[in-house]
């Protein structure tokens, strides 16, 4: 299967000479869900920005599939509190003819269109941003901590939504998150970063047993890979690529301060 995007020995440094990424190699295949994990300052957001073509590498190579359409959901969006705009008006900014009806239905935000943007909850805003990221029908969707500031129920719903998005849009998804249980249960590949280096990568079960992973997050966190678990009093589950049945469980945060 042809790759959507391939990084070869990509490094990123700041103007002051600080290295943010060190010789990172990554191949993204169609319909994969890839999780980027690691402690604060590991280089996760920098890597997402490289994938989004927002951050040029200092060295290394980047090969993109021709005409690759990418959707990007940033970690933060700061809005003026006095901006007189509804969720629907925000969603349609810059659009000429396209009506985002499919995106509204997929992300479950149809009922929010007349609501002031500032009145949205954290979970509602993230879903709205996801809908906007999907408008161009991306083949690669990049999500930088999409559940930051979202409550537990909202996190469960959002991670369930990712499998639906992958299935409906046929896109690959790369996600940065601190919620090990959720991310690992709904992912195909894991890339663990520490101080700009890839310290381990592979399938979730493999990564959870890797010495570097256990050193970073503790020997007990392999429980984050428990599947077929009923959560929130209901049957909350996603379907991993290949049809595996996966349930959401309570999150473990990897934020080390």
- The fraction of residues assigned to DSSP E strands is 15-25%
Fraction of residues in helices? 25-40%
- Given the C-alpha coordinates, what overall shape results? globular
Assembly of the depicted chains: single chain
Major sheet characteristics: 6 strands, mixed
Structural class: alpha/beta
Q: Got a strand count?
A: 11
What does the average pLDDT come to? 81
Cα Rg:
18 Å
Per DSSP, the total helix count is 8
Stretches with pLDDT under 50, minimum 5 residues: 224-257
Provide the spatial order of strands within the biggest beta sheet: 5-6-7-3-8-9
- Could you spell the SSE succession in H and E letters? EEEHEEHHHEHEHEEHHEE
Please tell me about this protein's structure.
This protein has 257 residues and is of the alpha/beta class. Helix content is 27%, strand content 24%. The strands form 3 sheets. The chain has a 6-stranded mixed beta sheet with strand order 5-6-7-3-8-9, sandwiched between helices. A 3-stranded antiparallel beta sheet has the order 2-1-4, with helices on one face. Helix 5 links the parallel strand 6 and strand 7 (172-176). Helix 3 crosses helix 4. The protein is globular, with a radius of gyration of 18 Å. The chain starts with a strand and ends in a 10-residue tail after the last strand.
Summarize the structure.
The termini are far apart. This protein has helices at residues 44-51, 87-91, 101-107, 122-134, 152-169, 180-185, 204-208, 211-217, and strands at residues 5-13, 19-28, 33-37, 59-64, 70-73, 140-144, 172-176, 189-194, 197-202, 237-239, 245-247.
